Fold this sequence. Notes:
Elements: E1 2-3, H1 17-27, E2 32-36, E3 39-43, H2 48-63, E4 71-75, E5 78-80, E6 88-89, E7 93-97, E8 109-110, E9 115-121, H3 126-139, E10 144-149, E11 154-162, E12 165-172, E13 177-179, E14 189-191, H4 192-198, H5 201-205
Parallel strand pairs: 5-8, 9-10
Antiparallel strand pairs: 1-3, 2-3, 4-7, 5-6, 7-9, 10-11, 11-12, 13-14
Helix pairs in contact: 2-4
Amino acid sequence: MSAAAVEYPCDGEPESLLDSANRLMEQLPGHRVEIIGGVITVAPPPDGPHGRALTKLMRPFIEAGLDDGGSALIQGIGLWLPGGPQDYVIPDLALVDADFDAHRAENHCYDPAVFRLVLEVTSSNYRSDLHLKPAVYAEAKVPVYVVLDRRHGRVHVLTEPGGSSYDRHEVYAPGQTVTLPASIGAEVTLDVAELVAAGSRAATAARPTD
C-alpha cells in the first residue's frame, strides 16, 4: 500500500483528510483508500488470485453458519479507528455482529466494537498488512486478525489485543491447518495449503492439458 499525494483546492481552506480520501476514491475506481495514522494510503485494485483466495477463505465461515443469525460476513466494510480523528481502514473481509448497522460511525464506517475478526489477503501492500495494520487493529481491540501472506506462503493469526500490539502471533505454513478461536462464534478451520495455492499466480498460469 502506498501513500497518495494529496492536492488541495486552490481557493479556500484546505479540504479535510476525509474529503481528500473520498475524492481519491471517486478519481480512482477500484482502488482502496484508507487513512492510517493521519496519512492517506491507496492500494491498487486486487488481482484475480487475490479474489480467488478471498473466496476460499469465506467458505469455512459460511459453512460454519457465521454469515447468518448473530453475525455477518462482509467484504470491504469500513472500520473506524480510535487512533486518529479521521482514521479508518477497509479490511478485505470482516466478521461482525449482526446488528452492525446500528453502530455506524463516520464516513460509512462502523464502530470497531462490532468486529469479531478482520482478515487481509496481501497484494503489493503486504508490508502494511503485516507491519502497520496489526497495531491499528490491536488499538481498536479487534479480537482476531488473520493475514494470508501470499508473498511468503503463510497464514498469520493474531489474537489477544493489548495496547498497540497483539500478545499472541502464530504463523502457519502449508501442510498445517488453523483452528480459529471459538470466540468468533463457531469453530472455523482453515487449510493453509489450499489458501496459499488459491492466492498463487502460478496456479493461475497453470493450464490443464488435453
